[in-house]
Prior knowledge:
By secondary structure, the chain is an alpha+beta fold. It has a single domain, classed as Glutaredoxin, CATH 3.40.30. It has four helices and six strands. α1 (about 45-55) links the parallel β3 and β4. The protein is globular and about 35 Å long. The model has no long low-confidence stretch (mean pLDDT about 95).
Amino acid sequence: MEDDGSIYEFSAELLDGQPLSLEYFRGHVLLVVNTASHCGFTPQYAALEELYSQYNARTFEVLGFPCNQFGKQEPGRAEEIASFCERNYGVSFPMFAKVDVNGAGAHPLYKWLKHEKPGLFGIGRIPWNFTKFLIGRSGHVVSRHGPNVDPGKLREEIEELLG
């Protein structure tokens, strides 16, 4: 785990292959979500985009991390994922390259997120696509929300964090 417990210590590759240090988002409120294009929760992309559009000017970001670990629901290549998200949901928030969120090959960011907020019964595993982590301006995990939680239900918490 990272020593200072901050999301800013991590970096990840964007869908276009460019690396991005999460330091770029220092001082922002972040909603980190593992996503998939062929999942029962995929329509949440619309609510995520709505939150992003509504709050982005106030330094709020949604960070999408496609994942193929649950029922192989994100089989596409980066270009296919980007096209699907833009075409079907108008996604304009940052989308990262496909990652694993569980197991030995889990992205270091997800290892840290699960360590910070282990989830139900203290089990660190991500249960399914569209698990959401809300990060405050300090770079620390504030809350974790399961796949069944509609992103729109996070508005009050986001407003509070934006101040």
